[in-house]
Design a protein that fits this description.
Alpha-Beta Plaits; Gyrase A, domain 2; 4-stranded antiparallel sheet; 19 helices; alpha+beta; 16% strand
Length: 578
């Protein structure tokens, strides 16, 4: 490859690295801490916060309209002009030259439309940050603090319930189902994607990053979920929806909770019926008034599955109750044929169905479900209990202050080690040391870019692998430079010195690095999570090191040392010429 071609390739690598690093740089340098804190919460918390902001700003605009309709739109509400322009465009209306409160509010068909525009603005801002946080170089538990929990399958409990002990593939399947259910509870708990994975034959390792409450972790891991069936008060439900669905700003407090009207009696409860939107956030479909008394507890569920109705191919949710639950459900449905029954999960209505006839153990929920809605409902119902009970084997916490200290120590270790290597190369190899240092910095840049693209979790062991890799990376340049010195002592020209130095050092560098990569792969496959972090960082660093030492360094020497010239780059401060 020509010098120009190699140069363009290096430039391309730098540009690609910048693109890979962009999410990480943006997250850690340009996203405010308040946005990070909100993005770390659950989707439900984000929805409540966005709804509270929408309620507050809708009331502010209403008051401004009443006091002076011609006053200018405040700066912090100017973002609404974009929504207003889109609304006017849909109606075939022109936008005003300057926006006042009246022209802004008159652009929306109703106050509910304004409320939804404000809510979507705040929701999208936090959801974008939430998605960004999942695509950056993460800090591990030992650097940012958090909690590590090891759970073990309770085989004795399973045997007492089913009459036998699971083993082999069946046990692995039960553990996998437990992991799926625990993962589905992430949003309920409100943490940023905890790492949940199987450890050994019958254990689950869970690492929850950030500052967490141990009691909330226990609830998240071990609770059966508050699943219940409630009868629906259809008359009050219709009345509430007439009052609230056209004016949602009046339905919610600033904290996002629902305002219960005075006409709702004490033995009734007002809840929201939610379906997920494209962001994974529960969107209010309507309001439902239910009987506060639990008609049937979710503990009677034995199995849940999403299937398709053979008659119309529509998605349905089928679940089976135990014998006691079947008797209770048959008695309930026999008395309330023609009424509506709701499925309530953790304070939210998941489904509403009409009781057409008496039902015993096998229940089918039908409706205008999409496949995704039916699957989500099936998952929600399954999370009310775990296929195999779990017990806590160990629970360890890492304080946020300790994590901050670890980050500081890790950064100092990287910078101090990098500085020592840079100084050593310049002092020992003179001007040629600058080339080695540039290749080293390029290596570090590429490593961070690759780890960021892989959404790697950086731990203390990973930092150790990073520092070790920097030392090994400069070792390749030392081998090349020493080979060059031998060629110089043999009387070779500067051009031949560079060519032979890189050529004869090539296989020595490759042999040593390939064997290290093999060791890193073995450690990554067979090692524990801590060892894997070290091994993965080491493997990525070695690959980047081979590229920078054999390709980038060679290219830089070729710019200074030409075949037709006798000038070169000095390999020490005592000698002139390579």
């Amino acid at each position: 490859m020509s010098k120009v071609g190699r140069s363009l390739f290096v430039v391309l690598v730098i540009v690609v690295g910048a693109l890979l690093l962009y999410p990480t740089i943006r997250w850690y340098c340009f996203v405010s801490q308040s946005i990070k804190d909100l993005a770390a919460g659950s989707n439900e918390n984000i929805r409540d916060w966005a709804r509270g902001q929408a309620s507050r700003e809708t009331l502010v605009l209403r008051e401004m309209l009443q006091t002076d309709r011609n006053q200018s739109v405040p700066e912090d509400l100017r973002y609404l002009t974009g929504f207003a322009e889109d609304a006017r465009k849909d109606k075939g209306m022109d936008s005003p030259e300057s926006w006042d409160v009246y022209s802004l509010l008159s652009s929306f068909a109703s106050e509910d439309e304004l409320f939804m525009a404000i809510e979507s603005y705040y929701r999208d801002e936090i959801m974008d940050a939430k998605r960004l946080s999942g695509n950056v170089l993460q800090l591990g538990l030992d650097l940012r603090g958090g909690m590590s929990v090891v759970l073990e399958a309770d085989l004795d409990s399973f045997e007492s319930q089913h009459g036998y002990r699971p083993s082999g593939d069946e046990l692995s399947s039960l553990i996998a189902d437990d992991i799926e259910i625990l993962t589905s509870r992430i949003d309920q708990f409100g943490v940023t994607e905890p790492d949940i994975r199987q450890q050994g034959a019958d254990q689950i390792l869970i690492e929850v990053p950030g500052e967490v409450d141990p009691e909330r972790v226990d609830s998240f891991l071990m609770s059966r979920g508050s699943l219940a069936f409630h009868l629906v008060d259809s008359e009050l439900t219709a009345r509430v929806n007439r009052d609230y669905m056209g004016n949602r700003a009046a339905a919610f407090r600033p904290d996002g909770s629902i305002i219960v009207p005075d006409y709702i009696p004490a033995d009734r409860e007002l809840l929201g019926y939610y379906t997920e939107d494209e962001y994974g956030i529960d969107v209010l479909r309507e309001f439902v008034v239910i009987d506060s008394e639990v008609a049937l507890d979710g503990t009677h569920l034995e199995s849940v599955r999403m299937e398709r109705n053979p008659q119309n191919n529509q998605p349905v949710v089928n679940f089976r109750l135990d014998s006691e639950g079947g008797e209770l459900f048959h008695a309930l449905t026999s008395r309330h044929v023609g009424e509506q029954l709701s499925v309530v999960m953790d304070g939210k209505v998941k489904s509403v169905a009409v009781i057409n006839s008496a039902i015993s153990q096998d229940v089918q929920l039908t409706g205008s479900f999409t496949e995704e809605e039916a699957r989500s409902l099936a998952v929600a119902l399954r999370t009310s209990s775990l296929p195999i009970d779990l017990s806590v084997v160990s629970q360890q916490g890492v304080g946020a202050s300790l994590g901050t200290d670890a980050v500081s120590i890790a950064l100092k270790a990287i910078l101090f080690g990098l500085l020592l290597i840079v100084c050593f190369m310049i002092i020992y190899y003179g001007p040629a040391g600058f080339i080695a240092d540039f290749a080293l910095l390029m290596n570090f840049y590429m490593m961070i870019a690759v780890l960021s693209a892989l959404h790697f979790t950086l731990t203390l062991s990973s930092v150790a692998g990073l520092v070790l890799t920097l030392g090994m990376a400069i070792d390749a340049n030392v081998i090349i430079y020493e080979r060059m010195k031998e060629e110089l002592r043999a009387g070779k020209s500067p051009y031949d010195t560079v060519r032979l130095g890189f050529g004869r050092a090539f296989w020595t560098i490759m042999d040593s690095n390939v064997t290290t990569i093999i060791a890193a792969v073995v450690l990554s496959v067979l090692g524990s999570s801590t060892v894997k972090g070290f091994a993965n960082t080491l493997a990525v660093g070695i690959v980047c090191s081979l590229f920078t030492s054999l390709f980038v360094s060679h290219l830089l020497f070729d710019f200074f040392v030409k075949e037709e010239s006798f000038k070169g780059v000095s390999l020490s401060w005592r000698r002139s010429g390579v």
